[in-house]
Design goal:
Blueprint: H1 10-20, H2 24-34, H3 40-48, H4 53-61, H5 68-77, H6 85-92, H7 97-107, E1 111-113, E2 120-122, H8 124-134, H9 139-155, H10 159-168, H11 172-181, H12 183-193, H13 196-205, H14 208-212, H15 215-226, H16 231-242, H17 249-265, H18 269-276, H19 288-304, H20 308-321, H21 328-344, H22 348-366, H23 371-386, H24 390-397, H25 401-407, H26 410-429, H27 437-442
Helix pairs in contact: 1-2, 1-3, 2-4, 4-8, 6-9, 9-10, 10-11, 12-15, 15-16, 15-17, 16-17, 17-18, 18-19, 19-20, 19-21, 20-21, 21-22, 21-23, 22-23, 23-24, 23-25, 23-26, 24-26
Length: about 475
């Protein structure tokens, strides 16, 4: 696919695979379209845009071949992700949803099996095209179908996705109540799936007084802003929370967690450490999710203070005591912190093994361009570059730099560009292994340690700090 005759480089190949989810039909259509143009990257950008030629091809070549009743059914259930036969029957308003899904899974490449037993997924390309058709439904009909989805999900104990459908249905009070009932899942979804747009919509639709009556929902919104590098908005929300009467130490501690996280993403580790320090020992938190976030934060602060062995010990002790019901996303963050300690100590082999495992799970559970997965890839690319594997480093960073720029810790952004620059310098000089380890071990995790601005060769045995 990435042959030189086609002019498709690693970044374009990764973007193409991401766009089509590796779908053979989608790949074939895309390659047909970009194979005849002088600039495949530019053409792919056009294809990626809403309403691009690839989606037009999909609608005209694939969806047009469906029976009208099947097309209407798929359009209705395109708002669901993932798909359950019973839920699809309720939203699709048909009695034979199970048979339709089984038949279309065999006859079309639109539906694929999910890891969950009775659930299916719809390929992104098809879902996007079908949701565009769904947007043409009357607004009242759209809200009715979202309300149907919300009710079924509530009845089957899936409160968090029900909250999002309730919001789309215009049932704002119900959506808020559901979000508060499933606050663990709600916050985790904000963290892992980046539901910032919907969270912003919640804030704009609800009167300030209504939100002030729901401090837990305000906290979820503050988490969303902090983890989306919107430090000012996070602080404004925290100020509203702390201004309410009767705020206890548990809420104050959680607010400190929110603001210290925002400070890390704002490249202000000193402020982050200062916010965390008063709550570092014996935090007044009872929520297992928050206690795990606190443990992760404590280990990371210890690492920044220059004690990777203690940070690793703290993280592993916290992981052993964590409840089994905690989201795997938080477990992955903890494992990422342990990998960081190995990199800090220039123990590249255990770091690489750990990072490969973390990245595999992150891509499987969250997606290749998820912010966390991209952050792990940035560190792993720097590590594999140390063993003279430039092609692997480039592949790891392909179609990820834009996400890393927007969402990653500043250290990971530094390492991503440093690795690519080192590779280009080594190519120009006809050498390999110039090394980014000085930036990792001594300049990668905070301004206390200066990175080598000239990207000169740095030996692992003589770090630049």
């Amino acid at each position: 696919m990435a042959g030189s005759d086609a002019g498709i480089d690693s970044d374009t190949a990764a973007r193409l695979h991401e766009l089509t989810e590796g779908w053979p039909l989608g790949l074939q259509l895309a390659l047909t379209l970009i194979g005849e143009v002088p600039d495949p990257g530019a053409e792919l950008s056009i294809l990626s845009a809403h309403g691009g030629r690839l989606r037009e091809h999909l609608v005209s070549r694939l969806l047009a071949n469906l029976a009208p009743s099947d097309l209407d059914f798929l359009t209705r259930i395109a708002i669901l992700d993932p798909l359950h036969p019973e839920l699809c029957g309720v939203v699709g308003e048909v009695d034979d949803a199970q048979e339709r899904l089984e038949r279309m899974s065999l006859d079309t490449p639109i539906l694929i099996a999910s890891e969950q037993c009775d659930w299916l997924r719809m390929h992104t390309l098809a879902r996007d095209a079908l949701r565009k058709r769904f947007a043409g439904f009357p607004v009242d009909k759209q809200k009715e179908l979202h309300a149907r989805a919300a009710q079924w999900l509530v009845d089957h104990g899936q409160v968090e996705p029900a909250a999002w459908h309730a919001l789309e249905a215009g049932l704002h009070e119900q959506a808020c109540e559901l979000a508060e009932r499933s606050l663990h899942d709600f916050i985790t979804t904000v963290m892992t799936r980046g539901r910032l747009g919907t969270m912003t919509e919640w804030l704009s639709l609800l009167p300030p007084a209504a939100l002030d009556r729901r401090p837990r929902l305000l906290l979820a919104a503050a988490w969303a802003m902090a983890l989306s590098q919107r430090d000012v908005e996070a602080r404004q929300l925290v100020d509203r929370i702390l201004a309410q009467p009767g705020v206890g130490d548990a809420v104050r501690c959680e607010c400190a967690l929110i603001l210290s996280g925002a400070a890390f993403f704002a490249d202000d580790p000193d402020r982050a450490a200062a916010l965390h320090a008063p709550w570092a020992k014996d935090p007044p938190l009872r929520d297992p999710l928050l206690r795990q976030i606190h443990a992760n934060r404590t280990a990371f602060c210890t690492l920044l203070e220059g004690d990777p062995a203690l940070a690793r010990l703290q993280q592993r002790q916290a992981s052993r005591h964590a409840a089994n019901a905690l989201p795997s996303y938080l477990e992955l963050w903890g494992e990422f912190h342990v990998a960081m300690t190995h990199v800090w100590e220039i123990q590249m082999q255990p770091a690489e093994r750990s990072l490969h495992s973390i990245l595999g799970r992150a891509e499987s559970e969250l997606g290749r361009r998820n912010p966390f997965a991209c952050q792990v890839a940035a560190l792993l690319a720097a590590v594999v570059w140390e063993r003279n594997a430039p092609a692997e480093s480039i592949t790891l960073l392909a179609n990820r730099l834009d996400v890393i720029e927007r969402t990653a810790l500043p250290a990971c952004l530094l390492l991503a560009y440093r690795t690519l620059a080192s590779i280009e310098i080594s190519r120009g000089a006809g050498t390999a292994g110039t090394g980014a380890v000085g930036g990792i071990a001594c300049g990668g995790f905070g301004p206390r340690f200066g990175a080598n601005p000239r990207l000169e060769p740095v030996r692992p045995s003589t770090p630049a700090c």
